[in-house]
Design a protein that fits this description.
The protein starts with a helix and ends with a strand. The strands form two sheets. It has an eight-stranded antiparallel sheet. Strands 1-6 form a two-stranded parallel sheet. The chain has three helices and ten strands. It is α+β, with helices and mostly antiparallel strands. The protein has a single domain (about 1-244), classed as Beta Barrel (Cyclophilin), CATH 2.40.100.10.
Length: about 240
C-alpha cells in the first residue's frame, strides 16, 4: 500500500512538471521561433524574432532560426556610406512602401539588406507575421512557393553581427528580427506599426519609412489566424534598391 501511494505521488509530480514546462508551440516568436512558430497564446509576443525558445508576456518580432555553424558577417571598414542616397522600394499586393537606410547607425545591416535585395532574395516572400499596434514582419525565404520549412524559420544561411543603436522603435522604423542570440539576424525584418520602445537598444534598427506608411497601416489591419499569420498572403512582389 505504501509503495502504491509513493508511486501515485511520483506520477502526480511528473504530470505537474510536464504541464508547466515551456514548449515550442507557446514560445515567443522573434525572427524565427522554435519549430518555426510564433506564440500560440492569445496575448501576442512583443519582440520580433526569427525563432526563440523563451516564453514571454511581451510582444516580440519573431526571431530567425539560428543558422548552425555560421558566423556573423562584419562590415568592411569605412562602410558607413553604404545606402546613403539610396532607398528600398517594397512592392506589395497592398501597395508600395519606401524606406531610407540608416547607414551611419547600422552599416553592415544596411549592406546585407541591399545585397539580398539586389540578388532578388526577397522577391515573392511575404509578411508572414502581422500584429496590429505592434509590427509587420517578413523576409523569410520559406514563405515563397516551395519553401523548405515553416514560415518564420528561414534565413540566408548565415548570420550578421548586431548593430544595436540609439534609434527609437517608432512607427515606420525598419529593424532586424533575431533569435535570443544578439548576433543571429539574417534576412527577416520588421516594420514598426506603433511605438515599441521596449525594443530600443535590443534590435538593430536600420531603416525608416519615407513613403507608404498608409500601406503599412493597411497591412496591420489584415485578418490573421494562428501565429499572427495573415489569412490571405501579404506578398512582397519585389524589393528594389533605387536612388532617392
Amino acid at each position: 500500500m505504501k509503495s502504491l501511494l509513493l508511486s501515485l505521488i511520483a506520477a502526480g509530480i511528473m504530470a505537474v512538471g510536464c504541464s508547466s514546462a515551456p514548449t515550442a508551440s507557446n514560445t515567443v516568436a522573434s525572427e524565427t521561433t522554435t519549430a518555426g512558430s510564433s506564440s500560440t497564446e492569445t496575448t501576442p509576443s512583443d519582440k520580433p524574432a526569427e525563432t526563440t525558445t523563451e516564453s514571454s508576456t511581451k510582444e516580440e518580432p519573431a526571431k530567425e532560426k539560428s543558422q548552425t555553424g555560421s558566423k556573423p558577417v562584419q562590415a568592411a571598414a569605412g562602410a558607413t556610406s553604404i545606402g546613403v542616397g539610396e532607398k528600398a522600394v517594397i512592392d506589395t499586393n497592398y501597395g508600395e512602401i519606401q524606406f531610407e537606410f540608416l547607414s551611419s547607425k547600422a552599416p553592415n545591416t544596411c549592406a546585407n539588406f541591399i545585397k539580398l535585395a539586389n540578388k532578388k532574395f526577397y522577391d515573392g516572400t511575404t509578411f508572414h507575421r502581422v500584429i496590429k499596434g505592434f509590427m509587420i514582419q517578413g523576409g523569410d525565404p520559406n514563405t515563397k512557393p516551395g519553401g523548405k520549412g515553416p514560415a518564420g524559420t528561414g534565413g540566408p544561411g548565415y548570420q550578421i553581427k548586431a548593430e544595436f543603436n540609439d534609434t527609437a522603435h517608432e512607427p515606420g522604423i525598419v529593424s532586424m528580427a533575431r533569435s535570443a542570440s544578439p548576433d543571429s539576424a539574417g534576412s527577416q525584418f520588421f516594420i514598426v506599426h506603433q511605438t515599441a520602445s521596449h525594443l530600443d537598444g535590443s534590435y538593430t534598427a536600420f531603416g525608416k519609412v519615407i513613403k507608404g506608411m498608409d500601406v503599412v497601416n493597411k497591412i496591420a489591419e489584415v485578418s490573421v489566424g494562428e501565429q499572427d499569420a495573415p489569412n490571405e498572403p501579404v506578398i512582397m512582389k519585389t524589393i528594389r534598391i533605387v536612388k532617392k
